[in-house]
Every structure is written in C-alpha cells, then in structure tokens.
Amino acid sequence: MKRFTSYIVLLAVLLTVVFACKVPETLAYSTIDGYIININMAESRIEVEDYRGYVRVLNIAPGAVLLIDDTPAALNDFRIGMEVYAHYLGNSLTRLESWSTENPGYIPPGGKVRTGIIKSIDRNQLILQLTTGKEEIYYTSPATIVLKDGLNVPLSTLYEGDRVRLYFDERDTSVVSRISIQGDSVRIKGLYKGTLYSQNSMGSSILLKDVEVFQNGTWRELKNILHIAYNRDVPIYYGGQKISPNNLKYYNGKTVYIAVKDFFGKEGAEQMVVKSLYESTFSEKIEEVNWYASAFELKNKRNIDFSEGTIFVKNNRLVDSYALAPGQDAFVVADGRGAKALASVVYIYNQDINNSNIGQYWLYAGKLDMVIDNKIVLSDFFILNQNEWESFDDEKELYFDNDTFIFDLENMERISNEEFITGNYAVDEDSSYARRQGLKSWYAYAYTDGDRVVAIALKKNMDSLLRQRVTLGTIQTLEDDALVGKTVILRDARDWSSRNEKWMEKGLPVRMRVEKSLLIKDDRMISWDELKPGDDLYCIRDDFECIFLLVK
Amino acid sequence: MIKKVTAFILAAVVLFTSPLHAFAAPAGFEGGVHNEYQYQELVFITGEPRIFSGELKITENIRSGTDKITYKYTLTDKDATEKTKLSRTVTFETEYTAKDDKGQTIGRTVLTRFSERIDIGGDRYELEDYQFSKSDVIDNRPASDFYSGNFEARKYYSINRGEGEVIVTISGGNVGYENFWGSTETQIINYYITYQRKVSDEEGETQNVSWEGTVRAEVSDSMTKRLVYSENEASLSSFYGGYVRTTNRELVSKYEYDLPRIRDNMPDKKQRVRDSIKLSESMVPKVERLPVPKFRDVMGHWAEEYISKLYSLDVFDESQNFFAPEAPMTRVEFTKGVIRACDIRTSMDDDTQRKSARRRREPPEESPFKDVSVDDINYQYVKQGLEKNIITGVSKDFFMPNASLTRAEAVTILMRALGFTSRAPNPGYYTSFSDDEKIPNWARDAVYVAREIGIIQGDSYNRFNPDKVMTRAEASAMLVRFLEFLERDLQRDYRENIILFN
C-alpha cells in the first residue's frame, strides 16, 4: 500500500512537471507563416496573410526581435510580399523572421585579402606568415593570377621571402585567385655593420659610426657616420634575446649588424642584431640543420646556433630559418667565444635558374638536328643541371611558338619563325646538297620553360662548355666600352666550383662582355640597355665572355 | 631666395569644417613631394626626366561646403647646366555635397585658375589650356573618414610660341582616409605625353620631331600620430617617465617612365628608356608631452603599457590611485573610451559653446534610455554613441550602462565605429571561430570583419569567447590595438600596399 501511494505521488509529480512545462509553452505565443501584405510604419503594425489565406494584423511589440536572414533588422527593412515567420501573443508580434539573401555568405571577388611574407613554396602550396606572426597555408591553382609591380607574371617569379597580398574570391576557400607580389623594394639594399652611436628621442632613427658594408664576400668601409631610419616594429636582438627599442640606448658603443632596405630613396633598418661577444666569419657549406635545436653544422664541423633574431638573407630577401637547407653555401657572421657561437647573419649564396620548385626552366645546349614547324630537335645535347653542364648522348625535342625569341648570334639579329624554319640552321650534313653547299648544322643555347623554348640563341660553332662556369652577382655598373663593347661589372659575385661543389665568392668585382649573350628577363629576351645596376644575375660565362645572362 | 613651403590657411569664416582637410594630400596632381623647406617633382616635358625643386606656397580657403586651394610653384632644375625655371599657379575649388541620410559626402573639384611656364635653356613651354575634372566620395564613419576619387585632365603646352605642342593627358585616382590618429592620401596618376615640334637644322631645313611617352606617378602623403615612451633621466623625480605623442608627416613618390632615348636633343626612334625614380620628403616631427599616469596597481601588470597609454590620452580620466585592471569593464566606460580615443566630437562639446538663453527656450532634453539620465556624467557619450550608430541599447529603452562588457559587445562597438560591418559577407555564413554558434547574430558581422582586419584572433582553441566579460585591462589592450589600426595598419594599406605593389 505504501509502495502504491508512493507510485501515485510520483506519477502526480511527473504529470505536474510535464503539464507545468507544457502549458506555459503552448500559451507563450502563437506562430504564423505567410506573406506580408501591408506595413504601417507610423503605427508599427504589419498585416500578414498566412498560407491558407487568413489575414492577421499584428502590432510590433516593444523589444520585438526582427530578423532578416538571422541578422537584426528594422521594421522598415521588411517589404510587402516577403515571406515571414512570426511569433505573436494576442495581436502583439514578438518575433518576425524573413529571408532575402540570394547568395548566403557571398563576398565580392577578391573580397578576402591576406598580406604577409612567403615563408615557403612547395609547388602549389604557399605558407604565408601574416603581419601578426601567424602562419597560414594557401594553395594556388592554374587560374591564379600573379601580378608583380602591376604586371602579369608567371607564378614561378615568386621567391621565399617575398611580401605578397593574396586575394580570394570566396570567404572559406584557401585557393588564391590573385597574388600581388611586392616589387624590387622587397630586396635588401645591404648588410651593414657599425658602432651604435645614438638614437633620436622619438625612436625613429639611429646614428652609426665606422660603418662597413658586406660586399664581395667581406666587410668594406662605407661611411664614418650613417643615419638610418627605423621604426619600433624592427626586431632587435642581443645574444639571442629580443630587446625593446626603449632599451636600445643602453647598447650604444656596441657593434650592430643591420639589414637595410631602400624606402623611396632613403635607407631604413629592417632587422638589427647587436653583437654581444666576439665576431667570427665563415664562408662554408652547411652540412646539417637542426631546427629543433636551432643550430646548424658547417662543413668544417663547426656548430653554430641561430635564434629568432638571426638575419637570414637568401636571394637578397630576408627569410626565415626554414629557408636553410643542408648543402647550401653561406657566409656566416657568428657571435661567440671559444666553441660557442650564435649566428648574427647568415647570407645564403645559392641561387638557381628556378626561383622555387614551381619553375621548370632549363638551359639546353646542343646541335640543331632538325627544325620543323614549332619543333626543334637537339642532338648530343647538354643540360645545365645544378650549375654544371651534363651531357646526353641522345636527342631532345623542344617546341617553339610565335612568342619564342630566336636570335642569330652570328648576324646579331632576331629572326622570325619562318626564317628559322627555312634557313639552313639544321641541315642533313650527309646530304649531297649540304656537302655541295658546305653547310653544317648550327648550335643552339635554348632557355626553356619545360619543353617550350622561351628564347634560343643560334651560333655556327659550339663553344667549349668545359670552359664555362656559372657566376652569380649583382650588377654594379654597365659600361659601353669603346674597345671591347657592352660590358657588365658584377659585385658580390660568386662562381660555382665543380671540384669543390661549392659557390666560391669573388673578392673582386667580375667584368663580363655581353655583346654575344642570350639576355633573359621576365621570360623574354632583352637588350643590354634594359639591364640596370642592382639587377641580380645568374650567368654562364667563358671567362670574360658572357654566354647566358638571366636577370633574377 | 628662401626656399620654403608655406601653407597659409585663410579660413576667415569657417562655418562648418570641411569634410576633407588638405593637411595630408599631395600638392596638385604632379606627383611631387615636399616638406617645410622645399618641394620637388619630376618634369618630363623635354623627353628626359628632370628633377625640379624649389618653393611651393599653398593657400587654402575653407568656407561652408567649399574648399579653395591654390598651389604656387617656383622651381628650378639644380642639376641642369643651362638656365631652367618653372613657374606654375593653379587653383582648385572643391564643392562638397553632404548626403546626410547615407553618411556620405560627394566632392566635386574644378580648376578655376591656371598658369604655367617652363624655361629650359632657350626653350619655353607655356601652358595654353588645362582641362580638369575630379570627384570624390567620402564615407563619413564615426572613427574615420574613408574616401576615393577619380580625375581626368589634359594640359596643352606651346613650345616657343608656335614651334610645337606638347599634350599631356592625365588620368588617375586617389584613395585616402582621415582620422584623429592619421591621414593618408595616395594618388596614382598616369600621364600620356605627345610631343610635336618643328626644328630647323644647320642647313635651314625644317624637320618634324615627335615622340610619345608614358609616365606613371604614385604619390602618397601620410600623417600619423604615435605614442613614444620617454624615460625620465633623473632618478629623484616624482615619476618614472611618460608618453610623448609625435606627429609625423612624410611624402613619398615613385615615377615610372617610358620615354624615347634622347641623343643630341633628338629622340632615338628605336630605343626607349624605361626606368623609375623615387622621391621622398619628411617633415620635422611635432612632439607633445602627455600626462603621466600614476596608478598604484598597474605597474608590472601585463597591460601596464596599454593602460598608461590610454590614461595619457585622457581616454581614462580617473583620478583615483587604483585602476583595478582585473575588474570588469562596463558598457558605458568602453563607449566613452572609444569616443575619447578616436576624438569623436560629442554634443557636449557643442553644448558648452552654445549656452544658456537659447537652451532655456528649448524643451528639456529626454534621454533615449530609461537607465541613463540626462544628468549622468556619461550621458553625452551614450547619446553620441547612439546617434553615430556605435552602440544600441540592450532593448529599445534600456542601455544597461553598468553591465559588464562582453567581447562580442566590444568588437561590435569598434567595428561600428570604423563602419566596417558592411564589409561582412552576405548573411547566412559562419565565422571560422570554433565557437561560432555562440556568436550572437548582432555581433556576427563585426566579429567576422574584426578577424579579417587583424583586430582579434582566436585563442589557442580558436575560440572567440563572445560572452566572456572583458576586464578593464583586456579592454584597454583591445582599444590600443584599435588605435594602432587607425594609425599604422591603415597607413600601410593605403601607402605601402598600393605603391610598393604596383
């Protein structure tokens, strides 16, 4: 009996709870679905015709929730004819919802933008470091438009360390629709070393004394006193520790290393390291890199630590420590004592024809075996692989088109496709016609994008490729010498040594004649006039004679 | 001759402030730069780039809805071996039409006066006609004005009175912003130059010389205000140090040209010169010391720098010894902070000017919110915030001024002040925060945009935490980040991101 009573009580309690919950809900509000057929703004009233055809006049209650596409709206945002869903109590409307957007979540093309520095490039994957320091991964597609200095360029132009703006056409996509690459202003103008003398009270400029510049593989005198602008966002490190710009004055008298950029003709500091102990410099190959331990080992077995403050320079751009790779040749300025050393500056010499693994540019040399419509065949050809000519006892088919630059180095003129095809550049040397005429096939240097010839230079006799070497450098001056012709003088030059498998820096400027060379810039052949001091070059030269010159 | 850029503001009768002050806009449409001392620009009329520098006088006359500005240049090419002189006077008049219902202003600029004469060696180039049309739209948002304009022009020069003609067709656009913390205007100007001239050679035979060239000038005038900490050198002082507000103004310019190679004053038909020249000038920074904060409870706090900065700027005007950084920020304090930090004019400022008699005749003011009385010391901030659409009440009649501020509310107030909520996608989207479902509908647009422009980031779990109450320290950090956005991020976007990428 007792148990029965307790069941009854429990049931009663349950029923009470159920009804107590349900009753207010059913009484709370009524709902209506339908169309707005009239809006009275003055009296805050709307008329809604439900789907069955009944019309209800509702007054907007104070504090009523009005939503269009889940976004708060005002009464005058609603229009006659809109479909609505409403809650009401009596004649008082408490919630009104409607829908209007045709394309939910739509942003205009290019409406999402990310600005930052390219940290790494791997085919179609870009890792971007945002201004906030955060890293994000994005992808390019064949349809991605690439602009540099406002001009459309191939994606292979992109370097690690480039500052870019990525534009997206959709809100939640990671596929970039357009990339805008900062022009040459992203390149560092120089690496300076000097004694910190003072800073102005506003913390916007510093004065350095006894300033030296890193040039031709060593520090060279630049100026007695140098005034450099810097802003408070410039990272400053001392012994691997970041220091506040407010505290920079406590380091006056110390040696500083500064990466400097040009900002509208004025020099501005981009990164600064204050020397804490003693300087050692190395020009060596990096044997191993350990990013977890923030250290690398040089070929001379010297271990060097690096920190977030280390200035890494590659392709004349400031890069991240992840740009380091075993096998690279570098100039290292280390700060330390005894066996301990912390890198202040790591200047990576390596440069390739391709800026990243996006590019598929190659340089071929060989004998023209056949030239037919849009196609050439090279026999016994050579290909420049890792800065050395590699020979192939084979034939190579390459394709050309109307946009290919074909240059006759003997007559020093650009020739048309028809002239190339119909001319005696590739002949059957065994034929009686060729023997009678004394014709021989010509040789060619072909700069290609994959199998497509971008530019081809033709000459009657083959050069000795063994004598040729790859040289990197920056144009210091251009001279049209009355005696030898058009020349280029390079600073910070380095030659590839096959024996050492290493970039060997030149202590002196390198002078080359470019009268008979294939000059390439931005995927086209250019003339000597279009070269400018400051251009970075990748060249193949036979001593004084430049054979191939690529403006990077 | 003292070479000096003189700016006269002849605003004798300023009834209403013009919506666009000319204090950070490049002079004229020549791509030139200047500082207090000298002006310089590139002149291409001979087919070769020449840097002319000298004196620029700017006379500005601001009247109700009209802005009249006159530039008078007297320049020479200091590198030239021959005698050179450029004299130019141009007056532009801009009429502003306010579209109050849209919070926008339309500006129309016309050229009312021009004269120009360039003497280079024995040649004189005289401006015969100058057609010019320009129009801007200015979006007046509470914390900043954003504007964009286009212009088209054509200049006709005669060479030595009938020897030839140079026609310069100009087409360009400008973008800019202006707020208390900075203003930048960047112009991109394209010039297409055609040159035709009859030249007699030594044998007396007349020869027609003609060439075409293009020049693209990108010029930016930028002013920013920064807060720099200055330590007190003396130890025995009542304070350790304080903030200095510096006003920096810098003009930069980049000219890219494609011109014929000129040899012996004759253009080489086969060769072109393509290059670029950069110019820059900066003004001497103006410095202003700010009050020194002396709170007893903020030293060593992670937000000490932010709190001190805001106190120095009078954003927080507490005179107490304790700031209570970990206490919750209230809705009204944050509203007041935003209005003061952005120097948004409140009607209190107006009221103190037009006093007494007239006000007595007006009916007594009624507060829009039942819980904020007109006598409340923060009433004007709430009223102004509501009028400028920076804030709304929690309901029609209540603002709940002393309720704790949530992150969603703070971000919404800041984005409304910037007027950026309209940059959000069409409704019906999710933000990329992992707690997106917790973001209230009214805050979604603001949260989305604030993340896009880098004002906020997710926590380590990529959460936004919209309902989290903000402490006074956290609110201070967010406000300082907002001021940095107005001062630095906008400058970078309007200057570096345009000029260095194009």
The amount of helix of chain A comes to under 10%
The dominant shape of chain B is elongated
Derived structural class of chain A:
mainly beta
What's the number of extended β-strand segments of chain B? 15
Report, as a whole number of angstroms, the end-to-end distance of chain A. Answer: 98 Å
User: What's the pLDDT, averaged over the residues of chain A?
Assistant: 89
Name a few traits of the molecule.
heterodimer, A: 552 residues, mainly beta, OB fold (Dihydrolipoamide Acetyltransferase, E2P), eight-stranded mixed beta sheet, 3 helices, extended, B: 502 residues, alpha+beta, 2 domains, 15-stranded mixed beta sheet, 15 strands, 41% strand, elongated
Question: How are the elements arranged and paired?
Answer:
The complex is a heterodimer of chains A (552) and B (502).
Chain A: H1 2-28, E1 30-40, E2 45-50, E3 55-68, E4 71-72, E5 83-89, E6 92-98, E7 112-122, E8 125-130, E9 135-148, E10 151-152, E11 163-168, E12 175-181, E13 188-199, E14 205-215, E15 218-229, E16 236-238, E17 241-242, E18 255-263, E19 266-274, E20 278-290, E21 295-298, E22 303-305, E23 311-314, E24 317-319, E25 329-337, E26 340-348, E27 361-372, E28 375-385, E29 388-391, E30 395-399, E31 405-408, E32 413-415, H2 417-422, H3 432-437, E33 443-449, E34 452-459, E35 469-481, E36 485-497, E37 502-505, E38 510-513, E39 518-521, E40 524-525, E41 536-542, E42 545-551
Parallel strand pairs in A: 3-6, 9-12, 16-19, 23-26, 31-34, 39-42
Antiparallel strand pairs in A: 1-2, 1-5, 2-3, 3-4, 5-6, 7-8, 7-11, 8-9, 9-10, 11-12, 13-14, 13-18, 14-15, 16-17, 18-19, 20-21, 20-25, 21-22, 23-24, 25-26, 27-28, 27-33, 28-29, 28-30, 31-32, 33-34, 35-36, 35-41, 36-37, 36-38, 39-40, 41-42
Chain B: E1 6-9, E2 33-34, E3 39-43, E4 50-63, E5 66-76, E6 84-99, E7 104-120, E8 123-140, E9 145-159, E10 164-179, E11 182-200, E12 206-231, E13 241-263, E14 266-282, E15 286-289, H1 304-312, H2 331-341, H3 347-353, H4 356-361, H5 379-387, H6 407-418, H7 441-452, H8 472-494, H9 496-499
Parallel strand pairs in B: 1-4
Antiparallel strand pairs in B: 2-3, 3-4, 4-5, 5-6, 6-7, 7-8, 8-9, 9-10, 10-11, 11-12, 12-13, 13-14, 13-15
